[in-house]
Amino acid sequence: MELSSGEEGARGIFQSGNAVFMRNWPYAWALAEGKDSPVQGNVSVTVMPRGGGHGTSAPTLGGWQLGVSKYSHSKQAAAELVMWLTSEQEQKRRAIEGSLPPTIVSLYDDPDILRANPFIGQLKSSFDDAIARPSTVAGENYNKVSSAVFNSVHNILSGGLSPEESLIKLEKKLKGIKLKDTN
């Protein structure tokens, strides 16, 4: 059993029909629904699992940031490119052709986008429900926090520890990381 994989590795396993589900970014839907995909017509998308006291899903904030370097020799042309890439027309095209989520909220209700990629309408709630990525909270300790969480989940999935044991160890580890950097 495969317990870990990068985004493209996971997509490859899923798209070949060898996985029941996959956690990935929206671009993967367009590829899984491509005309040569073995799973075409059998793929669906949903929000992340709900948890916590109120049973809410917590998508992360993120995206493709665009900017113009102050060292650019073509600042005007670069700024024009950024403006075009972030235009409604271009975001709509990318949403239709590549299932890339737009940053313009009204596009989540666009009938052309929803016809091409029905799941995109579900992503609209991300604007209201999204939380900062753990890297925002963990700062320079993100790698330590990420490694601790990964190891905890891996221990559970591989049968090394029970979920209860693993979560107790994870809590101690995360508190240790926090205490170490606040003293």
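[next item in queue]
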Amino acid sequence: MHTLHFIRSALLLLLSFCLGGVCNAQAAQNSAEPAAVVRGVPTERSAPVQAVAKADIPATARGSQGRILFILASSKVHGKSALPASISFGEVVHAWDTFRAAGYAVDFVSPDGGAVPILDSYVSADLVPRLKDAPLMDGLRNTARPAQIDPALYRAVYYVGGSNALYGVPENPVLQDIAMYVYERNGGVISAVCHGTAGIVNLTLADGRALVAGKRITGFPEEHEEQDAAYFKEFPFLIRRTVQARGGSFHAQDGHQPYIEVDGRVATGQNYASAKPLAEAVVGLLRKLAEQSPGRGATQG
């Protein structure tokens, strides 16, 4: 009996040890994933932000603050018409190249997820070879849906222009939450180029003010549109007029030369030619923020 009691006690002790080891191993695995922490970057949010669902991003990237989120439109037509619409391929490529060269990872999101429209007329001859760039094109064919995105991963958002940028993006509440989380909780940068500026006109700070209020903003102004064309009649709003109505100061120049405005952590570009200098300006802002917050610099991915 004593022998049997000893064996039973030993088995129970061994079982307890094994179960404790499994639990401790699982706890160690869970604690290996770092939490998003804002260090030394001033934020403008006083109320908590509701987190958006985590994206299907490789675990090795989770927790990194070296990612930039490209926000693109899904619409293939202008408004309710049958007029074809597209993202601006060059505004993707030139910014992608700049951000990647600076060591930042890039992800894509669109209202509907999946492939975004790319019309031939939006692909200049020098960029045709990039249509075979596998990493780039895989991203554009498989954009995430807004609910898949974890905004804690990103240091900046970049609103891409194109003729479809006024549809689906500006009024999407989840995309708005993502952008404002990056800006207010992560202390990150909001950027937009050309018609992509339409995406930021409805963004609102935690205190209720419009993001653009009191800021110098640029984008593709309505006076540069073909106002007698059918596509223009489909526009739900006008960029310059809406920025001004929200309290922003809109600036643009004549011609097709690059023109950007950087006001605090909001950076905007007027036209297609502004994509690269805008991306360079965003990189500059992120480097300054990284200097203020050591340990949150760029990550290659």
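[queue empty]
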